Amino acid sequence: MRARCPAVALRTFTNAPPLASGHAPTTADRQDEHNAREKDMEEGAMSRRLAEMTADSIASGGPSAAKNVEAAGFSEELKKQLESRITDSAFRNQNRRAFAAAEMPSSAGKGTRDQATAQPWTGTESLHDSSLRMLDDSHKRLRGIRAPRVPQPTNLRPRPKKSTSTGERLANARDRTSIYAAALSNEMSEGERNQMRKELQERFSPGARPMPTTLQGLTSLANERIEDAIARGQFKNIPRGKGKNVERDYNASSPFLDTTEYFMNKIIQKQEIVPPWIERQQELVKNVASFRGRLRNDWKRHAARMIASKGGTLESQIRRAQAYALAEENANPLQTKVEELCKIDSQGNLSTVTVKETPPPPVAEEAQEEAPPAAAHHTISSTITITETPPEAAASSPSSSPPQTPHSFTTSSETHTAPPPQPTSTSPSPPRPILPMATPFRDPTWESAERAYHTLAIDTLNTLTRSYNLMAPSLAQKPYYSLTRELNRCYADVAPLLADEIRQRAQAPRVKVEVIGHSEGGVLERFGAKEGRWKGHLAERVRDEDLERKGYGFREFWRDLFGGARKERGTQVGD
Predict the structure, then answer these.
(1) Boundaries of domain holding 397
(2) Residue 422 needs a FRET pair 20 to 30 A away by CA distance; which of 75, 195, 303, 445 works?
(3) Number of domains in the chain
(4) pLDDT at 374
C-alpha cells in the first residue's frame, strides 16, 4: 500500500486536481510515471477503485487523517502532498457556499442559485427565518390578478338511460325486496316501521336525486328544502332569543374527562351500539328463556292431564297434585335466590343491600287443618326480603345473618284464584290432611319421547354459550347447560302450579260449536240432517200440491222426458 501511494497522487482520473510541482519534470520523472502507469494497467479495476477510495478518505479525514499519515511513516514529499490535499479539502468544506456560487453555471436560475447558496439546516430555526415566517402569517395574501372562476352552466337536458345488466337488476330487486320485507316485519315497533317507510318514500322525492357538485347547485337545493320546511310550518312557534334552542353539554368542557373518549362513548350511546359479546349475550338469554318457557308449558300441560286421568272428583285431583308438590318439595327443593349489592351513600359509607327471594312454602298438615279450604288450596305467595347492612354490623357478625335495620322491609306477592263453589251445609266436615307422595311425579315415557328435542336444544344452547365465552371477558362468562339440571329445575318450578292448572282445565267452558270433519262428497252433504246424509237427487221427492193449479210447465216436460232413466237408476240403488 505504501508503494502505491505516490502513484495515487499522480493519477489523472482522481477526483482532486493534480498538484503543481516545484520543478520541471525530468527524464527520470517521466520514466517513473511511465512505469507507474504500466503497473496500474496491470492491476485490476477493483484495486484501482480501492486505492482511490483510500486517497479520498485520507484527504477528507481532517486532523485525524493527518495523524494517521504521520503514524504511517510516509516520505516527507508524500506527507506534504497529503497535507496540502487535506488543507484544500477542509478549506472547501468551510467555504462551501462560496465555491458553489463560483462553480454555478450561468444558465442556472434564481431558485437554483438560492438553494445552492442557502445555509444548510442545523436543527434550529434562525431569528431571521422566525421573523419572516411570523410576518408572512400575520398578513393575508393579496388576491391574484386572475378573476374568480365562474362555474359552467349545468346541463339539464335528458341523457340516454344507462343500460344495466340482468345481474345488476336482479341484485337491486333482491335488495329492495329485503328492505320492504324488513319494513313489514312483526318484530319492528310502530315507530321503526314508520321510519323505514319514510326512508323508502324519500327515495322518490326530489331530494333523493344526485347531489349537485357546484356551489350554486348546493345553494339552490338548500333554498328549496328551506322553502318546503316553511311551507310545512316547521318554522312556526319557535322560541327565539339567546340560549333558547341551545343544548349545552357541560361534561364536554370538563378538564377531568378525556374529550376523545367522551365523544366516542356519546356517539356509541346515541347510535345504540354495543360490543359484539353483548349482542351474543342477548341472543343467548333469549334462546334460554324460550327453551325454558316451552319446557315448562309442555310439562305442566302433560302432568296436569296425567294426574287428572287417574280419575276421581275435582277435589281429589287437586289434593293428588298438592301431594305430588309436597313430594317434589322434599326431593327437589326450589333454590333461594340471593343477590348482594354494594352502594356508597352521600357521606362515603359503604353498605351492603341483600335481596332474597323466598319460594312459596309447601302445604303443611297444620295449615290445612287450621285454614279454610279456599285459603288453603288457592293461594300461592312468594316473599322478597331486602335487607340493608351497614359495614359496622357486617364486620361485627360476619357468620351470623344480617340484623334487621330500620331500612329493612319485606315485599310479598300473592296470587289468588277463585275457589270452587262449595255445597251449603250447616256443619262442614274438616278437610283431611294432605300427605306427600312417596316419590315425585315423573313420566319416563314423556321424557323418552321428548329426549331428541331436548338434547338438540341443549346442544344449541351450549354452542351459543361457547361462542359467547370466547368473546366475553372472564367475569361475564357463563357456565354450560345440562339437560338433567334443566329438567330438575322445570319439575321444581311446575310442581306448585299443577293444582291450579287442573282446576282451570276443569272449570274452562266447553266448546259448544259442532266441528264437522272432512267427509266424502260435496259441501251440501255436510249440512244434512242427523238421520242421514244429503241424498241429492236420490232423496225422497216432495209432492207439489199446486201442480194442478200451476199447470203443465217445463219441469213437467223435463220429468216426462227423462223420468224413465231416473226410475231405473233408483231401482238399481234400492236393490
Answers:
(1) 334-419
(2) 303
(3) 3
(4) 40
